[in-house]
C-alpha cells in the first residue's frame, strides 16, 4: 500500500534463544516475522521512536511443511533452487511472456537444497501447486501437488534432475528472404518460456528441456 511503501525497511535474524534485537528506526516501521513451518506475522506500524522498552512478543501459528530431496543419477544435489508455485485454476486464461501458462508468476515459497540435497518448503496456501527444481547444467523438473491444505502434511518428495531433451529446426523466410533475426519461442506452459534469434542459416536449437510436449 502507499502507506507501507513509505515505511523504513531492514532485516535481522533471530538468536538461538528465539529472540532478536534491532535498533528502532527514525521513521514509522512495521515488524514482519517469517520462520519456516509457521505463518508469517506482521505487527505495527509503529510511530517513529515508539516506546518498546518492554520488548515485543510475536506469536506464530504452525503450518505444515513439505520436505524433499533432489537427486541426479541417484546422488543428492546441493544448491538447487526449489520453488512452490500456485497452479492456475481450471478454465482460466493466464498468459506469461506471450504464452499460456498453467502456473502463476510469483513463487509462494522458495529455497535451496542443502549439502545432502534436502529442502523444506512451508505450506501457507491451499489448492493445487507445483514444486519446481532447477539447477545449472540440468533440465528443470517439477511435481504437481493436488489439493494442498493447512490441515495435513504432504508426504516427502523426491525430485530427479536430468539433462533433458532438445528441440532443433530451421526457419525459412517467405519468398527466399533472409531469416536472420527471426525469433523462435518455445513453451511447455510452465511460465518459463525460452526464446532465441536465428542466424543467417535460420537454424535453432534449445537444449536441456524437460521431457513433455512443447509448443514452438
Give short descriptive properties of this protein:
about 220 residues, mainly beta, 4-stranded mixed β-sheet, 1 helix, 16 strands, about 0% helix
Provide a descriptive summary of the structure in words.
- The protein has 216 residues and is mostly beta strands.
- The chain has one helix at residues 2-5, and strands spanning 29-33, 41-46, 65-72, 75-76, 81-86, 95-96, 99-100, 109-112, 118-122, 127-134, 141-148, 157-161, 165-170, 183-186, 194-197, 203-209.
- The chain is elongated and about 80 Å long.
- 15% of the residues are buried.
- What is the string of helix and strand elements? HEEEEEEEEEEEEEEEE
The CA-CA distance between the termini, in Å, is: 40 Å
Overall body shape:
elongated
Main sheet specs: 4 strands, mixed
- H/I helix tally: 1
pLDDT < 50 stretches = 1-8
What kind of assembly state do the chains in view correspond to?
Answer: single chain
Determine the strand fraction and express it as a percent band.
35-45%
Rg (CA only): 23 Å
Task: Report the structural category.
Answer: mainly beta
Q: Considering DSSP H and I runs of 4 or more, what fraction of the residues is helical?
A: under 10%
Taking all residues together, what is the mean pLDDT?
85
SS elements, strand count:
16
